[in-house]
Amino acid sequence: MKSNGQPCPRPDIKRLLAKDVPLKKPQGIWNNRFVIGRVNFIIGPGGEGKTTLACRLIADATNGEMSDKPLMAAFLSQEEPNPETLRFKLTAADADMDRVLLQAEDENDLDFPRDIDKLTAYITNNGIQLLFMDSFETFISKFTNGETCVEVLKALGRVSSNTKCVITFIHHYKTKGNLRTFWEAISGSDTINRRAGVIWMFSKIEVHLFAPRTISETGEVDELDEEVEEDNRDLLESNRVLCCTKNNPGNGLFESLLYDREVIDIEIDGEFVPVDRAIPMGTIEAGYEAVFEARKHRAEVDVAVSTRGRAEQLILNFLASGPRLSTDVAQNAQLANVKPRTFDRARQELMARGAIERYQEGRRWWMRLNNTSPDTVPVEWLPKTE
């Protein structure tokens, strides 16, 4: 209120009729799986091959498989500042090296929003049509500031619109803690979800839990042969999946894409260097929520199995010198910070496998290795040596 009691004038809300909003066809590459005008994201746990996937996508783009002609691409990495590493991965993916720019090792200090103009000039001067940056947080020194991230994503969206360049960040999600959903696992998820174009999740997948499919040359989708899947179950354990978690407004989520991880040897000066590459295998009926939940469950199982395995090995080590009182074995496990419940499960598992036995002498219970003969102890029961 003004001092004279009159209400303060309020600024008018801009009047915009729906008919005055232009309808624009989405622009992008790879059937708009990556769009122009907003920043795209590939998000996944560390160490699962996001960089390898990006190199594969760059290879596809530079070879003309994402649009009607080969594209000029760039990979700016402040997560992996050694361009030689990226060169190996791009070579393994069969990228057109004449169409890929990398970040020099002594220039890995780009910081947004400070260097937005510098990036714009870089894109324009080199005719870059596809740009990957790894990782989101390494390009924004004030990454934890939500307003700064919004400013950066809006500015990069304008850069993308003005230069017609597809801009995609690689980003990490957390795998530890009480993370109920994919979005809870992402640092800065609110900002990213509001401002990003297409968001992809990239993760390991236990492919037998889902329904893999292949795409025929005619574009028709066929179910993967069950016998082939069963015969190659071990191979498919190395699979990764690219799941769409957000698309442009008005569009549904894209189908998830299945990739296999393959290691090939690249010859350098008469020596062979093993390098990972991603191999596309078609589509798979696996939504990102289900994949995240399965991945989270697997991580929990891995931790439990690892903890129990340590307890099993401790019991075997303790019994290697001969029978011991059960109470002594349990006390030794407790001193090694093994929880009683974990110890009981480890003991039961070893007994179920026949590795140890528990017996009573008088009123006391003992434990010992279940020797097949007085002089022979199976190798797998003996203490492991480094």
Structure description:
- The protein is of the alpha/beta class and 386 residues long.
- The chain folds into two domains: 25-296, Rossmann fold (3-Layer(aba) Sandwich), CATH 3.40.50.300; 307-381, Orthogonal Bundle (Arc Repressor Mutant, subunit A).
- Helices cover 32% and strands 24% of the residues.
- Helix 3 (116-126) packs parallel to helix 4 (146-163) and helix 8 (288-319) packs across helix 10.
First-last Cα distance: 78 Å
Structural class: alpha/beta
Largest sheet: 11 strands, mixed
Strand order of the largest sheet: 5-4-6-7-3-8-11-12-13-9-10
Query: Which CATH-level-2 architecture of the largest domain?
Result: 3-Layer(aba) Sandwich
Number of helices: 10
State the helical fraction. Answer: 25-40%
Sequence of secondary-structure elements? EEEHEHEHEHEHEEEHHEEEHEHHEE
What name goes with the CATH superfamily of the largest domain?
P-loop containing nucleotide triphosphate hydrolases
- The CATH class designation of the largest domain is Alpha Beta
Average pLDDT value? 82
**What count of domains describes the coordinates?**
2
Rg (C-alpha, Å): 28 Å
Principal-axes geometry comes out as extended
The CATH topology of the largest domain: Rossmann fold
How much of the residues is beta strand, in percent?
15-25%
